[in-house]
Every structure is written in structure tokens, then in C-alpha cells.
Write a structure and sequence with these properties.
By secondary structure, the protein is an alpha+beta fold. The protein has a single domain, classed as Nucleoside Triphosphate Pyrophosphohydrolase. The protein contains six helices and twelve strands. The strands form two sheets. Strands 1, 2, 3, 4, 7, 8, 10, 11 and 12 form a nine-stranded mixed β-sheet that branches. The chain is globular, with a radius of gyration of 17 Å. The two termini are about 25 Å apart.
């Protein structure tokens, strides 16, 4: 998870009071993707270890994620986001448009590719020229991003009073959706120096921030009931009356 997305998770914690030292800033849209390998008896999630010399969370395990980019609104896709996923993304306040819901799902895919080199997509006969910048690896591999296998696990908004505020949606997708790997993204001098598939509940995950562990706990509960479904309730962490509040949005 990049600094922006991780900060969004870090400051929304159970019982943390609302900060008062900064004026109101509108939260920025952000997305995080938790990739899950369910081929074994215990599900594994993909985490990346940050470089020891970075200022923010050195040496910590994180998930890929970050802010929505302008290109995320207009990049072509191999399939639309499922209508049930769109409906879930539209729930909660502040309200967003279907176009922003789509961009959030697409941003989660882009951030995963940028930070881990793992691309969720489908082969296409024609590669659009609009696959530029951070989307270039998809074009080079003959892929279009595919959001059809994403599920929304949680939503969390950074409390008021922060200099940087984010409205983060936590997505998950099965590892089988990985269609291409870009070599050389993770290395000794990169932001992420190592990728590890770890079992849910294992020791590397114990060092994650409380909010991220809350989201993983929700993911673990949902996986225990069988295949992921869009109709499961979605926890929405936000601040109201100066305190963090957890609402359960109905799935649909």
C-alpha cells in the first residue's frame, strides 16, 4: 500500500478522537487491493515489505494501494464492473457517481500492477493507444484491465482535522485473476523490496495497523462462509460527532 492509502487506514482506528488542528479537507478517493490465494487449506494474502530507508513505515508489510488517478476514469476495460459491485460502491456518504465507482475499482488494479508488477486483465485483440503512463504494462502485454472479479470488503474515511484525508475502498480479488507479471518492479532499491504470500492470521500480518487488521478480519470471516459474494454487509468506518463509527452497509 502506498503512503497515501496506508495513511488512510492508519488514522481511522477504533476510538481515535477527531483531530482539531487543521481545517476541513475533502477526502481524496483511494483504493487498496488485497490479492488472495485460496489454492491451499488456509487462504493466503499478498503483502509487500517496504524499504528500510523510506520515511513512512520503513520495513513494514503493506498492501498495494493509493489515490485514484485521472487516467483511471477513462482507461478501457475488458469487462465492466459487476452491477452489484457498483451498487456497493455507491452506498455510504458522501455519495459518488457510477463513473467514480468505476474509477475506484480500476485504481485498485493499477496500483497493484505499479507496486507489485501483477496485472489483473484479459487478452484483447487490439491494444488501444490510450494505455499509456502507468497503464503501459497492460498495453505491452496485450491486456485490458479486468475489474469483473473484484469484491468490496470495506470502506474507511480519514477523520476530519488531518492535512491529508482519504476515502479508501478496500477491494479483494482472487490470485487466479492475475494475467501478467511485470519483472523488476520489486527489488532491493524499490519502494517494495519483497513480495510474500502469507496465511491469514500469520505473524507478518500481526504487525499491520489496527484498521488494516480489521479489514483482514472481515475478509477472513467472509472467506470462511464460502465463495465471496456481493450481498455480504460491508463495514464503513467514518467519523461522526468526533468519534470513529462503524456502520454496516447492506450488500447488494
Amino acid at each position: 500500500m502506498t503512503e497515501t492509502a496506508q495513511q488512510a487506514a492508519n488514522v481511522v482506528e477504533q476510538g481515535e478522537p477527531e483531530a482539531k488542528h487543521h481545517p476541513y479537507f475533502r477526502p481524496k478517493d483511494a483504493a487498496t487491493l488485497i490479492l488472495v490465494d485460496r489454492s491451499g487449506s488456509i487462504p493466503k494474502v499478498l503483502v509487500g515489505r517496504r524499504h528500510d530507508k523510506v520515511v513512512f513505515m520503513p520495513g513494514k508489510f503493506v498492501f498495494p494501494g493509493g489515490r485514484v488517478d485521472k487516467l483511471d476514469h477513462r482507461v478501457p476495460v475488458s469487462a465492466p464492473i459487476p452491477p452489484e459491485l457498483e451498487a456497493n460502491l455507491l452506498k455510504g456518504s458522501p455519495k459518488i457517481t457510477p463513473a467514480r465507482a468505476r474509477a475506484l475499482a480500476i485504481a485498485a488494479i493499477r496500483e497493484a500492477c505499479e507496486e507489485t508488477g501483477l496485472c489483473l486483465g484479459c487478452k484483447t485483440g487490439t491494444v488501444p493507444s490510450s494505455l499509456e503512463g502507468p497503464w503501459q504494462p497492460f498495453g505491452q502485454a496485450g491486456l485490458l484491465p479486468d475489474p469483473s472479479g473484484l469484491f468490496l470488503i470495506a470502506r474507511a474515511i480519514t477523520p476530519p482535522g488531518r492535512v491529508r484525508r482519504f476515502d479508501t475502498r478496500f477491494f479483494t480479488a482472487d490470485a487466479s485473476a492475475i494475467a501478467h507479471r511485470v519483472e523488476g518492479v520489486v527489488h532491493a532499491d524499490a519502494e517494495l523490496v519483497e513480495l510474500v504470500w502469507v496465511e491469514l492470521g500469520s505473524s507478518p500480518l500481526a504487525d499491520l495497523h489496527a484498521m488494516t487488521k480489521n479489514v483482514l478480519g472481515e475478509l477472513d470471516r467472509r472467506l470462511a462462509t464460502g465463495p465471496l459474494r456481493h450481498d455480504a454487509p460491508i463495514p464503513f468506518f467514518h467519523f461522526y460527532g468526533g468519534r470513529m463509527q462503524k456502520d454496516m452497509l447492506p450488500g447488494g
